[in-house]
């Protein structure tokens, strides 16, 4: 009897230990899975921000092959293709995302962005028209403004640009786009104002500085604006101003500005030298 009780007790202990071991293994497995998810999330973020764009494309392409149903990986592929400037492939990737379970209005906006980058303006407009009007984001309105610009619907473009500016804490880029829109319409005064505001928001935005000079040159104002610029930027802006003067027919002024650009640049300014030689040659 005592032997029977002892055996039963040992079996019970063994079963308890076995159950504890199983639970321990399950806990370890869950912990490892959690760690893997965290590691993968961090790696995905790295690939989307600091990795070489084409390396990121390869990474997400492999990941989507292994897990074709995961929309987050398909989004990563779409974003990486846009970063790599592989726009035709990006359109295909984002089109797939919008048809997957869990797709959101943001995905449709990203799809429209890829379409615009690929030059598919009509399809981009159709895609944006399908986004609910309640989805009010900076990117959505910036793209709406660009589409309106392409359609030469100036009032709509201005309205969308204004809304977009109010939806971001970093409006320099959209202000520059809005200014360029005004520049193409011939509204040089408003364009100059918007480029100036863009530069105040981001003093490193050379595109806005160059566009500001173009707006001034179109008004035959051939003096550089008072804005932050280094020596190389000053030389490049003088070159832009010189070409604007030549375009307006002010050849002598253009030559003078080219000479100033060449003298200002800390290295040999080949582009300006070629422009001056061409003018001197008649």
Automatic annotation (TrEMBL):
Q: Which Pfam families match?
A: TPR_16
Answer whether the UniProt record assigns the keyword Iron to this protein.
no
Keyword Signal listed? The answer is yes
Q: Would you indicate the residue range of the signal peptide?
A: 1-21
Q: Which UniProt keywords apply?
A: Signal
Q: Which domain of life is it from?
A: Bacteria
Its protein name is Tetratricopeptide repeat protein
